[in-house]
Design brief:
Shape: elongated
Bound molecules: uracil
Strand content: 15-25%
Oligomer: single chain
Helix content: 10-25%
CATH architecture of the largest domain: 2-Layer Sandwich
Order of helices and strands: HHEEEEEEEHEHEEHEEEH
Length: 233
């Protein structure tokens, strides 16, 4: 990897500030001051900036139990962002793997590995996401049978050209729905229930593929194990 990129990845310096630090002679590689941004460094090289050793962090994979009032967007907006919960170096670089609405709680994955993120979210990968939706109106009997059929066959949401992929609906009680989706369209759960004349008053994501929140409380996070990361190969 180029030395200026290495510096940008391991410090708070941007690439152009890294070049300036190099130019000022603040960076050494294996004890020798190096000023060329294009110099190549690898894992075995000892890189120091102002005498401080720099360590390249690998790709990171994290799960968070997102509270309400928190947004998945990487950009600063009205609400706190999911990355602000993650106490890791360079957490700002992590991106949510499929977004939850501000008022939705539950399992959010974050990573800086774009290919892995794609494997989790691409509809053709058929990765199941399970949601628990609280409904404003009870859903039972014939209306439930019709909804199950409708979600299983796919519905055309307003403004879209393709019907939703087959989804599985099970009621835990008359107001509590468990909906399993294999894709992640904008406000999908809320729009699907709106399409059958109901309204979602609370929404929580319980699982993504084989991953569940386990004992993570709202606002808590943890890194995934290598085995968990490999589950989305
Ligand atoms: N569907 C929704 O409507 N909202 C979410 O946050 C996730 C899925």
């Amino acid at each position: 990897m180029r030395l200026d990129r290495f510096l940008a990845e391991t410090t708070e310096l941007t690439r152009s500030l890294a070049k300036k630090a190099l130019h000022r002679g603040e960076v050494s590689v294996n004890g020798e001051v190096i000023k060329q941004p294009a110099s190549q460094v690898g894992e075995s090289d000892r890189v120091e900036w102002d005498g401080q050793p720099l360590v390249l962090v690998g790709l990171r994979y994290v799960m968070l139990n997102k509270p309400t009032g928190v947004e998945c967007s990487a950009r600063r907006g009205l609400y706190p962002r999911v990355v602000e919960f993650i106490d890791l170096p360079k957490a700002e670089r992590l991106q949510a793997v499929g977004r939850l609405d501000v008022d939705t709680t539950g399992l959010v994955l974050l990573t800086d590995d774009g290919q892995w993120s794609h494997r989790v979210t691409a509809p053709r990968k058929r990765c199941a996401k399970v949601y628990r939706a609280t409904l404003a109106e009870p859903l039972a009997g014939e209306a439930l049978a019709a909804a199950v059929k409708c979600f299983e066959e796919g519905i055309l949401l307003e403004g879209e050209e393709k019907p939703t992929l087959p989804a599985r609906l099970v009621m835990r009680n008359d107001y509590e729905a468990e909906l399993t989706l294999y894709e992640g369209r904008y406000h999908q759960v809320k729009r699907m229930f709106a399409a059958i004349g109901n309204h979602v008053t609370a929404l929580h994501r319980e699982s993504v593929g084989p991953l569940t929140l386990g004992s993570l409380e709202l606002g808590e996070w943890r890194e995934l194990s290598p085995d968990e990361v490999a589950m989305f190969a």
